[in-house]
Amino acid sequence: MRTALTIAGSDSSGGAGIQADIKTMITNGVYAMSAITALTAQNTTGVQAILNVTPEFLGQELDSVFQDIYPDAVKIGMVSDKDLIHVIAEKLKQYKAENIVVDPVMVATSGAKLISDDAVEILKQELFPLADVLTPNIPEAEVLVEMSVTNAEEMIEAAGKISETYHCAVLCKGGHSINDANDLLYYDGKYCWFEGKRIDNPNTHGTGCTLSSAIASNLAKGYDLQTAVKRSKQYISGALAAMLDLGKGSGPMDHGFAIRNEYVKESEK
Ligand SMILES: Nc1ncnc2c1ncn2[C@@H]1O[C@H](COP(=O)(O)OP(=O)(O)OP(=O)(O)O)[C@@H](O)[C@H]1O
Ligand SMILES: Cc1ncc(COP(=O)(O)O)c(N)n1
């Protein structure tokens, strides 16, 4: 069986972070492992508290995983502290990790800041150059290129700049755009769109985590990047269309859709 590792924060409400990643990896047909960067006390209305693990402990988690069950792909989500980012970069290099998907998580759907200001710089310097694909949403792309992104042309320009700077593919996600939910993949100086109809569902807690984990799972299974993104877009659309409505704020998605319909059987092929 192919294997995937998520390096991310725990979300006590189960909608985002490690919990979303593991649900996604299972339903996308890979064995899921985790190295937790932080515990969050969080729900659909906000993030109430964050407790980072120590850099030493994160290093031990990564040693435990890499020295035993080597992951076929690695997804990196919330890492709020620069020393933690440093450890991740060192370990990914030491173990020659492959198929690295970096979701540059900055702000939660609920508005809470999930990364310290000085950590963004270290993320750019140390982790982005190791990534095979970066998956910023529009506000994150704006921070990374210091320009506003309000239409398709600006998405192409921003993704192109990020791709050229860090020498990796960039998937600029369109969930925050006004009209459709079209995502743009920029790689090797080319780009292509993955079109999605906007689903009228306010419960989008964890969409970014889910998409990046689905991409990592599909890369782990040996799909090329374009196919991995295509399958992952299909997965996130299915999870949103299931219209789960839990909690008082922007609720989580229903990964069970994949078990109830043919997605799981299909993903095992
Ligand atoms: N209402 C929607 N209808 C259809 N697809 C959506 C919708 N909202 C988000 N998506 C899709 O979900 C994926 C994640 O995109 P989004 O821009 O929401 O990322 P994000 O902001 O990082 O997510 P998060 O909510 O975890 O922070 C993309 O494929 C995007 O197109
Ligand atoms: C632990 C953790 N990781 C990532 C997110 C971002 O997800 P979202 O923007 O959907 O809240 C989050 N809220 N919590």
Write the CATH fold name. Answer: UDP-N-acetylmuramoyl-L-alanine:D-glutamate ligase
**Distance between the first and last residues' Cα:** 11 Å
Range of helix content: 40-55%
Q: Examine the secondary-structure arrangement and name the CATH architecture.
A: 3-Layer(aba) Sandwich
- Please report the number of helical segments: 10
Regarding quaternary structure, what we see is single chain
The CATH class designation is Alpha Beta
Low-confidence stretches: none
Secondary-structure-derived class: alpha/beta
Overall shape: it is: globular
Identify the bound ligands.
adenosine-5'-triphosphate, (4-amino-2-methylpyrimidin-5-yl)methyl dihydrogen phosphate
CATH superfamily: Ribokinase
Task: Give the strand line-up of the largest sheet.
Answer: 3-2-1-4-5-6-7-8-9
Percent in strands: 15-25%
Work out the number of β strands: 9
Provide the succession of SSEs: EHEEHEHEHEHHEEEHHHH
How is the biggest beta sheet arranged? 9 strands, mixed
Rg: 17 Å
* Average pLDDT over all residues: 95
Domains counted in the coordinates: how many?
A: 1
GO molecular function: ATP binding; hydroxymethylpyrimidine kinase activity; phosphomethylpyrimidine kinase activity
EC number: 2.7.1.49, 2.7.4.7
Family: Belongs to the ThiD family.
InterPro entries: HMP/HMP-P_kinase_dom, PM/HMP-P_kinase-1, Ribokinase-like
